[in-house]
Design a protein that fits this description.
The complex is a heterodimer of chains A (284) and B (140). Chain A is an all-alpha fold and 284 residues long. Chain A is built from 11 helices and no strands. Chain A has one domain (2-273): Growth Hormone, Chain: A, CATH 1.20.1250. Chain A is 78% helix and 0% strand. The chains are: A mainly alpha (284), B alpha+beta (140).
């Protein structure tokens, strides 16, 4: 039962962290409207995941195992794209907020970006959601165990709620940060999450035989942090931690992160499209 | 990208069989063409057989009682196609921290998990949805 809760905690954590970052960011920058869209995206994803999971005998299975995995990889790469774009946008936007251009920032947020927020929340929750539903569905379908099914499903739901609580605590911990630092930290965190997602997508393609691992195991840090442990799960959700990564995964990670850092630096350097003087205020 | 603008005569497809020191001496145009054709067919066949010979397929079943077999032996180095078939009534997740692989498999389906270049050693795997199901891959 504890094991069931732990599995669910691990499966839900990443989604909870991404949604948590978005909500924390929007909350601190005073965008209540944006928060609604994040909830909307997350809620829609839960429904979609339940629908997909429940229909697993039909729709999903009809795809065949390789196609399912490819679909997962495509969703992951899509998520990386949206999150990357979001981080760059947030960095630029953070300056506008600092420059006391709230109203204009609000207008910018309304211009199609709300749908982007909803999309990120949707992708993050849907990805883990399908797996979670399959897992819980499997438990519910199984009979003959020593522990009653209802309590196992209950334990699973408790695990998911604990993941949400973990994410909440995580961002509560950031509350003391100054607004400027907060935006920078959340930006970097999202970027690292995206890098982790990217490597997990590459890992799927390696497992499918489409990409070569180059070297199957570059290093082994399982003596330090085990993959299945709580710390390993948090690191896995945050930076895509694996104790034994392949060379290709390492290469993808160390290519993506500096590339995005460069994009962020450029975003910071870009003069806002607002009246002059805002830079001077924001620099204070 | 300068080479893109060059004359096509520089491209390898213009290399005559004599350049490869395989000319039989007759020097007839047809012989050259035939030889080149044979060479390329031979090369393709060689690569194909190398790729096939390199790949080892191993079957692994997941049943309610656990993995079947619980221990698999394979030679080191080559490419392994691990065919995991879920023979239970619910979804499973084939997972191995040591192999750095995870794969959700629907009931009744069979999925191929590719592994390559493994060095000798023991690699444990389990079903993440039912952690009591465990097995080990022994690479020799």
């Amino acid at each position: 039962m504890v094991e069931t809760a732990l599995i669910m905690w691990r499966e839900t954590l990443e989604a909870a962290l991404i949604v948590g970052i978005l909500l924390a960011y929007l909350g601190r920058s005073g965008h209540r409207a944006g928060m609604r869209w994040v909830w909307f995206g997350a809620g829609a994803a839960v429904l979609a995941a339940v629908a997909c999971g429940a229909a697993s005998g039909g729709v999903v299975s009809a795809l065949g195992p390789d196609a399912q995995e490819l679909l997962q990889a495509a969703i992951v790469f899509g998520a990386v794209g949206v999150v990357s774009w979001m981080v760059v946008w947030m960095t630029r936007h953070g300056q506008e907020i600092r420059g006391e251009l709230h109203r204009k920032a609000d207008r910018a947020l309304a211009g199609g970006r709300l749908a982007g927020l909803a999309a990120i929340a949707f992708v993050a929750v849907f990805r883990e959601g399908v797996e979670t539903v399959l897992f819980l569905w499997g438990i519910a379908m199984e009979r003959g165990g020593s522990v009653p099914v209802a309590s196992l499903v209950g334990a699973g739901i408790v695990g998911a709620l604990l993941a949400v609580a973990t994410a909440w605590l995580f961002f509560r911990g950031f509350a003391f940060l100054r607004l400027e630092t907060f935006f920078r930290v959340t930006g970097v965190l999202l970027l690292l999450i995206a890098a982790g997602l990217l490597t997990s997508g590459v890992n799927k393609l390696i497992g499918l035989g489409y990409l070569p691992p180059l070297v199957p195991q570059v290093w082994n840090t399982s003596w330090l942090v085990r993959d299945g442990s709580p710390v390993g799960a948090i690191l896995s959700a945050l930076i895509g931690y694996r104790s034994r990564p392949s060379l290709l995964e390492v290469l993808v990670f160390v290519t993506y992160v500096p590339m995005m850092m460069w994009a962020l630096r450029r975003a910071v350097g870009v003069e806002p499209r607002y009246p002059s003087g805002s830079r001077a205020t924001s620099a204070a | 990208m300068r080479w893109l603008g060059r004359d096509s005569a520089d491209f390898p497809d213009k290399i005559a069989a004599s350049d490869l020191a395989l000319d039989t001496g007759t020097g007839c145009r047809l012989c050259e063409i035939e030889m080149r054709f044979q060479l390329s067919v031979g090369l393709v066949l060689m690569l194909a057989t190398a790729a096939l010979a390199d790949e080892v397929t191993v079957a692994l079943a997941v049943r309610d009682g656990g993995f079947e077999p619980t221990q698999i032996k394979t030679p080191s180095g080559g490419k392994i196609r691990l065919e995991v078939s879920n023979e239970t009534a619910s979804a499973i997740e084939f997972e191995s921290f040591e192999l750095n692989r995870e794969r959700v498999i629907q009931p009744g389906q069979k999925a191929a998990v590719y592994l390559s270049g493994l060095s000798a050693g023991k690699y444990e795997f389990f079903d993440d949805f039912h952690p009591e199901r465990k097995g080990v891959l022994v690479v020799e």
